[in-house]
Write a structure and sequence with these properties.
Number of domains: 2
CATH topology of the largest domain: Spore Coat Polysaccharide Biosynthesis Protein SpsA, Chain A
CATH architecture of the largest domain: Alpha-Beta Complex
Shape: elongated
CATH superfamily of the largest domain: Spore Coat Polysaccharide Biosynthesis Protein SpsA, Chain A
Structural class: alpha/beta
CATH class of the largest domain: Alpha Beta
Strand content: 5-15%
Largest sheet: 7 strands, mixed
Helix content: 40-55%
Radius of gyration: 26 Å
């Protein structure tokens, strides 16, 4: 049984003079985030129900299609019903409603029709009253046949409200929201939600260096999130700095090269945060994601070559062995998170660990320390990944 999504995008904002769907949210529009949330819950196709297509809505739909999301535009309820089979389940998202992926997944997994609810107290008229104790949180799941029947008899009634009422009359279960929900109608509604989205964009990836840089990354991301600059541009800037750093190290400009490498590390985290903010699932497939570790490795080898006239060819062997341990540790950690994984070696952390040795002029000692750190990380990861399971554990 397939899961489709119906996103209402025809109500006007009371204050903005535009559709709720086109209000700016985290650098994109409300409807773009709704579509990505529905897609993350497994819905396809994503049917956007509209009455008119202003330029901002047209641009938002085109951006979604460029990212290969299965978006269909319906100018009427009848046209939307044609895209849904009677045996499908339909995820209904109200105009301007933002519901976190976990909540939509709960709805999608529920048995039969279900309506996401919030308490009556504390929520205004934008949240439709269901009964004396609860209001609609802006998301529901119904069967395709109910939607097709509703579309056939709709006339001048509001689509989302009518479908909600019919689902409730048919006995849809109430599913209380266990996380934040929002129905956006005014620009003032956006600021608090953007802060919530920014806080949730940190993700769990990254080592200790990423945690130390997190306050700076959050500060810069907050100022970039509403602008047109995207993750690929910031990521490529980070890769460019890392490439310049590797070239400077190769020419013997050690302090300049390390400074450029360090400058690239927060940009890498900012690019990842921007990608998660805009719910881009290709954050790990951009060119910059491959270039950054490549340039970091090149910088380590370039440093070793620069140190060779003073400390011998063993520096080069040390650099390549360090990279081999790093690559092996990455392979060992591909199966998932390991105990102590926060402190394992990665290219961001190793760049920052080199800083005190650079300040003291002990570059060769720093290189030896990085070798020991990468070797210890590999052996720890190998031990944790291959240790026997405890009794009673799978």
């Amino acid at each position: 049984m397939a899961l489709a999504a119906l996103i209402a995008a025809y109500h006007e904002s009371e204050e903005a003079g535009a559709l709720r769907a086109t209000l700016p949210l985290a650098g994109r529009t409300v409807v773009e985030r709704q579509a990505r949330l529905a897609a993350a819950a497994g819905a396809a196709p994503l049917i956007v129900l509209v009455e008119r297509m202003p330029a901002a809505l047209t641009a938002a739909i085109e951006r979604l299609r460029r990212d290969r999301l299965p978006v269909k535009v319906a100018r009427s309820a009848e046209e939307a019903a044609e895209a849904v089979d009677s045996n499908d389940r339909l995820l209904l998202i109200a105009d301007g409603a933002i519901v976190e992926p976990e909540q939509l997944e709960r709805l999608a997994r529920s048995e039969g029709a279900a309506v996401l609810t919030v308490p009556d107290s504390g929520f205004g008229e934008l949240y439709e009253r269901i009964d004396a104790a609860s209001r609609w949180a802006g998301a529901a799941v119904v069967d395709g046949s109910t939607f097709r029947e509703t579309a056939a008899m709709l006339r001048d009634w509001d689509m989302q409200s009518t479908l909600l009422r019919r689902a409730l009359q048919a006995g849809a279960s109430h599913l209380a929201a266990d996380g934040p929900v929002a129905i956006l109608d005014r620009p003032a509604d956006l600021a608090g939600l953007e802060r919530q989205i920014l806080a949730s964009s940190a993700g769990s990836a990254g080592g200790w260096a990423s945690r130390l840089l997190a306050p700076l990354e959050r500060f810069v991301t907050l100022r970039l999130m509403a602008g047109p600059l995207g993750a690929p541009a910031v990521g490529l800037a980070a890769a460019f700095l890392a490439g310049l750093g590797a070239a400077a190290l190769a020419y013997g400009w050690l302090r300049t090269g390390l400074a450029l490498m360090l400058a690239a590390t927060p940009l890498e985290g900012i690019a990842g945060r921007l990608a998660r903010l805009r719910m881009r699932d290709d954050v790990g497939r951009g060119w910059w994601c491959y270039l950054l570790p490549l340039f970091a490795g090149a910088g380590l080898v370039a440093l070793a070559y620069a140190l060779t006239p003073f400390h011998g060819w063993g520096m080069i062997l040390l650099a390549f062995t360090t990279l081999a341990f790093l690559a092996a540790a990455v392979i060992e950690t591909e199966g998932g998170a390991l105990p102590g994984g926060l402190f394992l070696a990665d290219h961001k952390g190793m760049a920052w660990l080199m800083l005190p040795f650079a300040i003291l002029g002990l570059w060769h000692v720093g290189l030896a320390f990085l070798f020991a750190y990468s070797a210890a990380s590999f052996f720890w990861a190998q031990h944790q990944a291959h240790r026997p399971a405890r009794p009673g554990q799978d």
